[in-house]
Amino acid sequence: xxxxxxxxxxxxxxxxxxxxxxxxxxxxxxxxxxxxxxxxxxxxxxxxxxxxxxxxxxxxxxxxxxxxxxxxxxxxxxxxxxxxxxxxxxxxxxxxxxxxxxxxxxxxxxxxxxxxxxxxxxxxxxxxxxxxxxxxxxxxxxxxxxxxxxxxxxxxxxxxxxxxxxxxxxxxxxxxxxxxxxxxxxxxxxxxxxxxxxxxxxxxxxxxxxxxxxxxxxxxxxxxxxxxxxxxxxxxxxxxxxxxxxxxxxxxxxxxxxxxxxxxxxxxxxxxxxxxx
Length: 277
Description:
This protein is mainly α. It has two domains: about 1-185, Foki Restriction Endonuclease, Chain A, domain 1 (FokI Restriction Endonuclease, Chain A, domain 1, Alpha-Beta Complex), CATH 3.90.241; about 190-275, Orthogonal Bundle (Arc Repressor Mutant, subunit A). Helices cover about 50% and strands about 10% of the residues. The strands form three sheets. A three-stranded antiparallel sheet has the order 1-3-2. A three-stranded antiparallel sheet has the order 4-6-5. A three-stranded antiparallel sheet has the order 7-9-8. A hairpin with a 6-residue loop joins β8 (about 250) and β9 (about 255-260). α2 (about 35-40) crosses α3 and α4 packs parallel to α13 (about 265-275). The two termini are about 35 Å apart. It comes from Dictyobacter vulcani.
């Protein structure tokens, strides 16, 4: 697993640059940072930063070489392949929600500040300053952090991701007023995108079980409740929509079990989504 802090080399998420990097490695999976930099018309540190952004947003994986050559081998994930096929500019709302999803979960890569922001900090806030989140972040991870400068920079970068138009402001998760951030009313995507996030999380964390409690979807780490900042009523609407589509069943009883009806890859929901666009 790569760096969890400071991975982006001080270069904030920019969807146009990310798209440029993705399109290049799709056609040149075996490449160096120098070649990637030339293709993007940037210097090597920027290319290194966006090589990391490709991984942390779930678009690619790096295949480890057995020699000491500087060339990297990029392998597109299922998500990355579908994006290249259907939304290579990364402009679609559903695509951007999944970029957010991968920034906020612990899988192949962990983006520590983004993970902490959505799984632990925002569920208990409405408005706050960047200093407040920065102090929270330092308190939670500061003792074990090797990259001391990232303790200051990563929380700011995480917050800016959701208010900058060239990043993920389109999700409408946060608003910034002077120095204060407020949780907004997210612009939720198609139920198929929510289903992708739900199934991918389910397969990574609870693949041993076909049934989860409704409360787990609302409150567990990396759940759609946490990452979408959704209350129980909204999550119930998500589940009802997915029930109508035939992916889950939901018993609105005291125990409220949610059953996964189809043992299919999460990417099948994503492919269905893009084909309908």
